[in-house]
């Protein structure tokens, strides 16, 4: 049966603490005392920093992770008059104190890279952004993480869907088991079933003698991340549906079913509802996946995240490239804030990386712009987009160039035509051809 979770009302309230301007506890709710088995009078006046441990001192954070009385918790901080209210909205009971602290400590260094490739590499602490939109998604993800629900992540390419999928897995009770990612757009149709469902000995010519487990089996007790689910071949959609319904997988050429315990997280940058209407995506599968949707907003819908993300990537590349960049030139800041970011955070990251390779001194300047960011449209994403006819592709490129030229020329068509190296009459013809304003 389909379970629908109500996430508008807090479902995992573990109680709250009120803190004054000096960071001292002035009140503790009865639920909190009960859930954490403490006596209120013993803790009033204590510094909040002594109560919540293992967290980073990230200023202005509204959602934070830390250990409270031995439990790892997700805490939402809000302002109530001059006080702050710390609400524990998620408490994960199966992580012990020591493990959580060492996990947190390992995250602020490059030690992370040593994690096995099967385990997820990211946690919520690495999802940057202070916009209410992203804080909200982080909170919802953390809540959903501890359940076993199927999650559908939607949003434009480069918004961080995979990052969220890994963070959700990392906070779930499955975190020590595999996180197996399948990019449905990247596996050729004819290999799809053998890769995902596996095959038995002698299933087809060229098959391994001893057979091979598919990704679904490899994800046993862990999470199966189905990226670009809209690109799943139609036949495989039916097979996947059976796996989701029965929690059983049958290898190609096999006769026996094997039980699998997997949590599904799927992601798409396309509108699955439309694909269902067009008959390209099975409706029954859609309903199986559409239990809990997390919509990640595009970067242009949360402009307040642009600069914090830019600085985050600057620090990241400072470490990687051994640079000491500290500032973003004001003019460049302005440009970053006004750019449309069609490739979202991925594009911003690529852009900062390029800038960091040519920067001199401690400030990234406008000059970095000479390398147009749109050149960096990620290759993988490009390949996975449906192939257009040449005519359509050319038309899209022309529209894109014209719109950018007009934007840069602040709407002046003569200037825009000059920028495009075409005659202004030609620009007018194209504007009317493509119905552009
Ligand atoms: N909020 C964020 N904070 C830090 N890095 C991010 C954030 N969102 C995306 N990224 C980075 O941007 C790139 C694209 O993210 P990804 O999860 O692959 O996007 P998607 O799957 O939606 O295309 C990755 O390098 C990822 O680490
Ligand atoms: Mg992706």
Automatic annotation (TrEMBL):
MF (Gene Ontology): ATP binding; sequence-specific DNA binding
Domain Sigma-54 factor interaction: residue ranges: 127-357
UniProt-listed GO biological process terms: regulation of DNA-templated transcription
UniProt KW keywords: ATP-binding, Nucleotide-binding, Transcription, Transcription regulation
Pfam families given in the database record: AAA_lid_14 (PF25601), HTH_8 (PF02954), Sigma54_activat (PF00158)
SMART domains assigned to the protein according to its UniProt record, in alphabetical order: AAA
InterPro entries: AAA+_ATPase (IPR003593), AAA_lid_NorR (IPR058031), Homeodomain-like_sf (IPR009057), HTH_Fis (IPR002197), P-loop_NTPase (IPR027417), Sigma_54_int (IPR002078), Sigma_54_int_dom_ATP-bd_1 (IPR025662), Sigma_54_int_dom_CS (IPR025944)
Keyword Methyltransferase: no
Superkingdom per UniProt: Bacteria
Key word Transmembrane helix present: no
PANTHER family named among the record's database cross-references: C4-DICARBOXYLATE TRANSPORT TRANSCRIPTIONAL REGULATORY PROTEIN DCTD (PTHR32071:SF57), TRANSCRIPTIONAL REGULATORY PROTEIN (PTHR32071)
Protein name, as recorded: AAA family ATPase
């Amino acid at each position: 049966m389909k379970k629908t979770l109500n996430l508008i009302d807090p479902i995992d309230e573990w109680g709250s603490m009120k803190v004054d301007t000096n960071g001292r506890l002035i009140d503790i709710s009865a639920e909190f005392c009960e859930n954490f088995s403490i006596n209120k009078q013993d803790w009033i006046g204590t510094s909040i920093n002594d109560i919540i441990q293992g967290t980073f001192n990230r200023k202005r954070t509204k959602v934070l992770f830390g250990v409270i009385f031995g439990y790892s918790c997700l805490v939402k901080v809000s302002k109530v008059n001059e006080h702050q209210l710390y609400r524990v909205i998620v408490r994960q009971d199966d992580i012990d104190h020591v493990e959580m602290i060492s996990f947190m400590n390992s995250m602020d260094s490059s030690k992370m890279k040593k994690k096995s490739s099967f385990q997820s590499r990211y946690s919520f602490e690495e999802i940057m952004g202070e916009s209410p939109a992203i804080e909200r998604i982080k909170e919802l993800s953390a809540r959903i993480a501890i359940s076993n629900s199927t999650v559908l992540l939607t949003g434009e390419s480069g918004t961080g869907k995979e990052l969220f999928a890994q963070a959700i897995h990392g906070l779930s009770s499955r975190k020590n088991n595999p996180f197996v990612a399948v990019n449905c757009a990247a596996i050729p149709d004819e290999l799809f079933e053998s890769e995902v469902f596996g095959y038995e000995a002698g299933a087809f010519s060229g098959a391994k003698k001893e057979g091979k487990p598919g990704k679904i089996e490899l994800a046993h007790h862990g999470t199966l991340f189905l990226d670009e689910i809209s690109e799943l071949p139609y036949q495989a959609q039916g097979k996947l549906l059976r796996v989701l319904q029965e929690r059983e997988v049958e290898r190609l050429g096999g006769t026996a079913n094997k039980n699998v315990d997997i949590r599904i997280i799927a992601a798409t940058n396309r509108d699955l509802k439309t694909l269902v209407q067009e008959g390209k995506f099975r409706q029954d599968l859609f309903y199986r996946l559409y239990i809990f949707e997390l919509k990640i907003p595009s970067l242009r819908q949360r402009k307040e995240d642009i600069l914090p993300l830019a600085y985050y990537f600057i620090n990241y590349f400072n470490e990687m490239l051994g640079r000491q960049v500290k500032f973003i030139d004001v003019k460049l800041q302005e440009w970053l804030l006004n750019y449309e970011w069609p490739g979202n955070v991925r594009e911003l990251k690529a852009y900062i990386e390029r800038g960091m390779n040519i920067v001199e001194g401690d400030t990234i300047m406008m000059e970095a712009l000479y390398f147009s960011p749109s050149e960096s449209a990620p290759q993988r994403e490009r390949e996975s987009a449906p192939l257009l006819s040449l005519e359509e592709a050319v038309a899209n490129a022309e529209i894109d160039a014209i719109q950018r030229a007009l934007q840069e020329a602040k709407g002046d068509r003569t200037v825009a035509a000059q920028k495009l190296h075409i005659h202004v009459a030609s620009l007018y013809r194209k504007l009317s051809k493509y119905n552009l304003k």
